[in-house]
């Protein structure tokens, strides 16, 4: 649990105490942390509600090139929604309000214009797995476990939240995940497609930082164009908006970064991209 003012080397201050979504910036990387370790980083309604603002903050900051989503500590990425709030927050009309919070959080990650990485340690369950699946890349440690136990709680899993599952795994795997509510260990999750890369527990933060830095050092407009193209074609394979995608690619060729990339290649030096 974070203290009232917690400072991590190279990061901005993280304010607040108690269960919360924390935001910190470390150079070109924004870290968004679900901080509720006593409940396996389960997300309260307030935490769900804070996620769109955190993503918006990262997108608005020109210094941020990559967003990493993680859980506090190393026991859980997130156990999903805080079940202690279900009795009051997920019955009757209140359930619709809660679902709207969830939907806004998922959409904020899915629509984020900058690359997103889920750094998964330990338990990644329910809505926590849903959030991870909304990220572009998922790096998990070998101790991680995955499940969506909606069927074990009598919950109807919102159709909007099935789309990120189907973007990661085939339909039969999605059915296995939702029909059984079973927990899958890391190796099975990787085989299914839930995880992009598995790494030893002791190496996960180093691996994620290195990956984020590698992405951050590339031309932001090029990365954004690739993300937009892949997402648009994946979501609308039959009718992608090619004019929008062509415009994103053309913007790269018209950019200062493209000129910088050419000069750096000719001068045999590392380019310094500015996202312009």
UniProtKB/TrEMBL annotation:
GO terms for biological process: fatty acid beta-oxidation. GO terms for molecular function: enoyl-CoA hydratase activity. It holds the Pfam family ECH_1. Its EC number is 4.2.1.17. It is an enzyme of class 4 (lyase). InterPro entries: ClpP/crotonase-like_dom_sf, Enoyl-CoA_hyd/isom_CS, Enoyl-CoA_hydra/iso, Enoyl-CoA_hydra_C. SUPFAM superfamilies: ClpP/crotonase. Keywords: Lyase. Belongs to the enoyl-CoA hydratase/isomerase family. This is Enoyl-CoA hydratase. It comes from Hyphomicrobium denitrificans 1NES1.
């Amino acid at each position: 649990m974070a203290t009232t003012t917690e400072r991590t080397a190279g990061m901005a201050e993280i304010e607040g105490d108690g269960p919360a979504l924390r935001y910190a910036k470390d150079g070109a990387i924004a870290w968004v942390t679900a901080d509720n370790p006593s409940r396996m980083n389960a997300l309260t309604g307030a935490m769900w509600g804070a996620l769109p603002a955190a993503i918006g903050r990262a997108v608005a900051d020109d210094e941020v090139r990559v967003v990493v989503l993680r859980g506090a500590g190393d026991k859980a990425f997130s156990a999903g929604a805080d079940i202690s709030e279900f009795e009051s927050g997920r019955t009757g009309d209140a359930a619709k309000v809660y679902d709207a919070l969830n939907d806004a959080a998922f959409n904020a990650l899915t629509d984020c214009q900058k690359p997103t990485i889920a750094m998964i340690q330990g338990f990644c369950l329910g809505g926590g797995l849903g959030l991870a699946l909304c990220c572009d890349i998922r790096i998990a440690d070998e101790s991680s476990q995955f499940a969506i136990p909606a069927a074990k709680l009598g919950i109807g899993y919102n159709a909007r939240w099935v789309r990120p599952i189907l973007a990661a795994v085939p339909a039969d795997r999605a059915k296995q995940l939702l029909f059984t509510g079973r927990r899958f260990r890391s190796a099975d999750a990787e085989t299914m497609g839930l995880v992009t890369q598995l790494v030893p527990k002791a190496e996960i933060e180093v691996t994620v930082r290195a990956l984020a830095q590698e992405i951050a050092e590339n031309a932001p407009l090029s990365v954004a164009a690739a993300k937009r193209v892949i997402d648009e074609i994946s979501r609308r394979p039959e009718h992608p908006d090619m004019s929008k995608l062509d415009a994103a690619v053309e913007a790269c060729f018209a950019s200062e970064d493209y000129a910088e990339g050419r000069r750096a290649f000719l001068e045999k030096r590392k380019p310094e991209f500015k996202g312009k």
